[in-house]
């Protein structure tokens, strides 16, 4: 198993054990980089901290809550509006963010009075909101502010409000994953079991590890509703504070993102005996298998199968159309934790993409194990990379596109590599059958964008094509497609120049200029 040493990191020899190349016939024990360790000094990591993991990832998607950070204003600003956690209460949690704005004088003399003042002011400014979460940051943790005591004092003075305290300073773990654990355990310890829900179905679940990125939760909610299943609470996308206090009454915990929320599922099993079932909402086959598992648990497999048959028949032709044009394209899969292994195999099997690299900034060894096991031989696996290592990897691998966050994505654009936002999506939701086709369309548009092709030209010397040369305008003729696609009987019907134009116009969003298509057809 060859460790991969980046040229930019030769001055930090410890980094060599954090990147490996998946070789032929190797076991996971041979091809596993070190992970979930404290960042090596001098590497200029792009990781998030434990506070970020608690507030930004888990807490903020709760919709009817005042989310207030007790610390310097920069902490809350960095975790505000960077993901599309939409909600059905006019996106209250996206519009507003709250901070006590701790200054130097508060560090010297204490900031508990400031916190209480801010809590009361926030409730007065938003009288319809009666719930609050307070997040502790490094500064106020180091000076020893007793946030729990302040919260209890306010609840005694304002009996109609309820406050949850999350002690998750940035230094509470090696990465933001430490914050996931902190808020999971604090929620079940302090809030679960304090509200009794109304049960309306014989089949009741908690949908855990789902954050409603651009409506993902609503897509899955529709499938469960069609199966006759009641979602008692969603932890935490579009989730209600009081619904999440009633998690103890579910029959089953359905877990989507194991990296961020397995902790609360495990504790609910220990404390209340609620079983855990892991699912995957991405990709035709994984999603179908997931709904079958949920149906099998409740004895309603036929309801799940009906949805699978209907949705597959509706969307499979369009997915195959995109697969014919994406087969053989190289992708760097650089998302957060669970998408590393949710996507690694299925984008290859169902879209034809070749994964040439995987990485994670905060994932554990288990994330790397599953991710590396599911990607192709020769893939470069990296733990906690920095900007220079990312640039070096892209220059070496020459991917056609990368899936990552906004910061490394904008860096990629500078070297003419298109990216899709794996954390907040480009045109989501991406879950469900239709969502997976939408994901494929975004990949296709990213790779074949005329603007992206133009960005590669040197306008000082290169001729600028005006009426030819862009694959998007020509919609990719047979000659442009890989031989494996042309010889595949399952994809051959989708390789004609315009054989699905009319159908695509009827059934999905336009993926090319209609005027150009009409001229070409003529």
Automatic annotation (TrEMBL):
CDD domains: Nitrogenase_VFe_alpha. Residues 49-447 form the Nitrogenase/oxidoreductase component domain. Its cofactor is [8Fe-7S] cluster. Its EC number is 1.18.6.1. It catalyses: N2 + 8 reduced [2Fe-2S]-[ferredoxin] + 16 ATP + 16 H2O = H2 + 8 oxidized [2Fe-2S]-[ferredoxin] + 2 NH4(+) + 16 ADP + 16 phosphate + 6 H(+). The keyword Methyltransferase does not apply. One of its GO terms (molecular function) is nitrogenase activity. The keyword Oxidoreductase applies. SUPFAM superfamilies: Helical backbone' metal receptor. Keywords: ATP-binding, Iron, Iron-sulfur, Metal-binding, Nitrogen fixation, Nucleotide-binding, Oxidoreductase. PANTHER family: NITROGENASE MOLYBDENUM-IRON PROTEIN ALPHA CHAIN (PTHR43457:SF1). Belongs to the NifD/NifK/NifE/NifN family. Hexamer of two alpha, two beta, and two delta chains. This is Nitrogenase protein alpha chain. It comes from Thiorhodococcus fuscus. The lineage of its organism: Bacteria, Pseudomonadati, Pseudomonadota, Gammaproteobacteria, Chromatiales. The gene is anfD.
């Amino acid at each position: 198993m060859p460790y991969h040493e980046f040229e930019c990191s030769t001055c930090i020899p410890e980094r060599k054990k954090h990147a490996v190349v998946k070789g032929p016939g190797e076991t996971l024990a041979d091809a596993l980089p070190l992970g979930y360790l404290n960042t090596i000094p001098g590497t200029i990591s792009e990781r998030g901290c434990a506070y970020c993991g608690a507030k930004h990832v888990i807490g903020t998607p709760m919709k009817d809550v005042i989310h207030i950070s007790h610390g310097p204003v920069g902490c809350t600003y960095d975790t505000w509006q960077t993901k599309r956690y939409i909600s059905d209460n006019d996106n209250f949690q996206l519009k507003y963010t709250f901070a006590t704005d701790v200054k130097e004088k508060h560090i010297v003399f204490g900031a508990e009075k400031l916190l209480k003042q801010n809590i009361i002011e926030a409730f007065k400014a938003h009288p319809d909101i009666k719930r609050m979460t307070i997040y502790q940051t490094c500064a106020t943790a180091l000076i020893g502010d007793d946030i729990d005591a302040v919260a209890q004092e306010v609840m005694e003075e304002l009996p109609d409000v309820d406050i949850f305290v999350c002690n998750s300073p940035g230094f509470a773990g090696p990465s933001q994953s430490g914050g996931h654990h902190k808020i999971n355990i604090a929620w079940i310890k302090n809030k679960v079991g304090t509200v009794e829900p109304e049960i309306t179905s014989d089949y009741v679940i908690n949908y855990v590890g789902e954050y409603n990125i651009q409506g993902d939760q609503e897509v899955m909610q529709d499938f469960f509703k069609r199966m006759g299943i009641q979602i008692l609470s969603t932890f935490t996308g579009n989730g209600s504070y009081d619904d999440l206090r009633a998690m103890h009454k579910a029959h089953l915990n359905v877990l989507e993102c194991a990296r961020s929320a397995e902790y609360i599922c495990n504790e609910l099993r220990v404390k209340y005996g609620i079983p855990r079932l892991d699912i995957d909402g991405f990709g035709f086959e994984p999603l179908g298998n997931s709904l079958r598992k949920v149906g099998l648990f409740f004895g309603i497999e036929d309801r799940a199968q009906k949805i699978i048959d209907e949705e597959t028949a509706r969307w499979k032709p369009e997915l195959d159309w995109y697969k014919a044009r994406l087969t053989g394209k190289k992708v760097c899969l650089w998302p957060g934790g669970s998408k590393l292994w949710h996507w690694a195999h299925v984008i290859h099997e169902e879209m034809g993409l070749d994964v040439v690299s995987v990485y994670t900034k905060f994932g554990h060894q288990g994330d790397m194990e599953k991710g590396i096991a599911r990607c192709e031989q020769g893939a470069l696996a990296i733990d906690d990379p920095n900007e220079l290592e990312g640039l070096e990897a892209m220059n070496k691998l020459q991917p056609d596109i990368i899936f990552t966050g906004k910061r490394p994505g904008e860096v990629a654009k500078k070297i003419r590599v298109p990216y899709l936002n794996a954390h907040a999506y480009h045109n989501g939701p991406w879950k469900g059958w239709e969502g997976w086709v939408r994901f494929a369309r975004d990949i296709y548009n990213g790779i074949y964008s005329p603007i992206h092709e133009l960005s590669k030209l040197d306008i000082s010397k290169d001729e600028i094509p005006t009426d030819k040369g862009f694959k998007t305008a020509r919609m990719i003729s047979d000659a442009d497609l890989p031989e494996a696609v042309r010889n595949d009987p399952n994809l051959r019907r989708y390789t004609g120049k315009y054989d699905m134009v009319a159908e695509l116009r009827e059934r999905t969003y336009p993926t090319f200029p209609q005027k150009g298509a009409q001229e070409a057809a003529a």
